[in-house]
Design goal:
There is one protein chain. Helices cover 14% and strands 40% of the residues. The longest helix has 6 residues.
Length: 70
């Protein structure tokens, strides 16, 4: 799920509705506006998707990201 506001950062909510781990590759992340730096809003963790290249989600895990303007 993604929300884009023309005057603010992108918001992307990523959910794994499976009982198996899932991996999102960098292409999927880039299509959601998460190709670079982002902040995971629940944990406050800063993530650099340029260096990680993917996102691993545990079963039934969800994460909320917004682009990091820094």
């Amino acid at each position: 799920y993604q929300r884009v506001h023309p005057e603010a950062e992108n918001l992307a909510v990523i959910c794994n509705f499976s009982d198996h781990p899932q991996i999102l590759d960098q292409g999927v992340l880039q299509s959601m506006g998460l190709g670079g730096r982002a902040i995971e809003l629940i944990s406050g963790e800063h993530v650099n998707f340029h260096s990680t290249g993917s996102l691993n989600l545990e079963p039934f895990q969800f994460q909320w990201f917004r682009t990091d303007p820094a």
